[in-house]
Amino acid sequence: MTVAVPPPPAVPASALYEPRTTMDAAPLQRPPHADMAWEWFRSIGSPKFHVAPMVDQSELPFRLLCRRHGATCAYTPMLHARIFSQDRKYREEMLTTCSEDRPLLVQFCAHEPQHLLAAARLVQDSGVADAIDINFGCPQRIAKRGGYGAFLMDDLPRVESLVRVLAQNLRIPVTAKIRIFPDLAKTVAYARMVEAAGASLVAVHGRLREQKDNSSTRADWDAIRAVKAALSVPVLANGNIRHLGDVGACLSYTGADGVLSAESLLADPALFDVPARASVAVGDVSGRGRWYSAPPLERLSLAAQYMDLVRAHPVPLRMVRGHVHKMVGDWLAEHTDLRDNINRLPPTIQLFCQVRVRVCGGVKEVCVCVYVSRFANDPVLSRHACGGHIHCVTHCRLARCSVAPCPLTSCSFLLLLLIEQC
Ligand SMILES: Cc1cc2nc3c(=O)[nH]c(=O)nc-3n(C[C@H](O)[C@H](O)[C@H](O)COP(=O)(O)O)c2cc1C
Fold first, then answer.
1. Which of these, 41, 220, 357, 367, has the minimum number of CB atoms within 10 Å of its CB?
2. Which residues of 10-24 are buried (b: 16+ CB within 10 A; e: fewer)?
3. Average pLDDT, the chain
4. Where in the chain is the domain with CATH 3.20.20.70?
5. What digits encode the pLDDT tens for the residues 297-333?
6. 361 CA distance to ligand 1 centroid (A)?
7. Which residues are catalytic?
8. What fold, for 13-277?
9. Residue among 175, 205, 268, 323 whose CB has most ligand 1 atoms within 8 A, to mutate
């Protein structure tokens, strides 16, 4: 269920956004829509684990994969509002969804408020979105040329009018994803202006516009914490969520209501899977702590699941190519013929079916390796493993195991489940 958020009163950006030298200079006022914003957030389940918006990468099959593995909300990739409002083909290709794909935040970039409103209305009227998100964080050159994303940090009255036009004219909430300024007080004033303009949720990517390389720059959780303390609507933290351990650390340090993950989720779509990842090492606030990589067996299985989702929900194959590299890139490094084909040939579903077949073959190979290495030192078990069990593994039928009683059933069960998924 979505909850209508009443439009906030019109206040000019100049009155709301005055660069300040200290946060204390700004009187804390709870905006009138804050209660409705929380009611809406609760109505979508107070989601903590968000698939971040990613151009060509947070598309439907990937969102579904992440949801099946713990994500509780997802953003679409950034859509260009003007093109979306004018071009039916773009709409049909770039925004696909299904009933499992909720809650969903549809993200737009825009320079002109009327383009943004036209695009947002189309989405609202189609009933597929829980909110419309505005991208104020894209730092790429194309955003500079188009006058959107993080380059709007140089034109705050326009930021305000983009948020406000949606808040005043839509029945579903508007949310915003922002970056930080070098100056903490300016960041907080910026976030408060976005909130006052009508945003029902603010996601803060704790990096500067100039910090484009996420892996080499630590996100500033202190800035996120300051924004959370200053705002009355839900706040999400973004940056340096590398594994499940970081989620808890980030939530407790920043006080944020949820987190977004992007790059690490591409490599491990099960990052938010609490039962599966609970034992993963905890990073600390300084950024120490190891990066996490899911075991090869599991990544191969996730890639196979992703391929199945692509079959059910076709998307442009350049997106599939990106995911295949992120999920099983190191495995493809051993299968260079396949990797070269993926890089060189026009992407076709047949090509990715080959990957799927080889990925499944890889799962079996890894199963056999795990199996043999685990039991090789046990004379009885290794005899079994080299006889009936490996036979069972390669034929994916534990039930037909000829070795009775089977001493390895429970160990084999998980591996076989993975194979069965292939
Ligand atoms: C491949 C890719 C595409 C992205 N596309 C978008 C986008 O469409 N909209 C957006 O707001 N941010 C986009 N981002 C930024 C992420 O949403 C996120 O803010 C950033 O990667 C930091 O999160 P992380 O440290 O978990 O990677 C993208 C990031 C990546 C890696």
1. 357
2. eeebeebbeeeeebe
3. 81
4. 13-277
5. 788 789 889 988 998 999 998 899 899 889 888 777 8
6. 32
7. 138
8. TIM Barrel (3.20.20)
9. 205
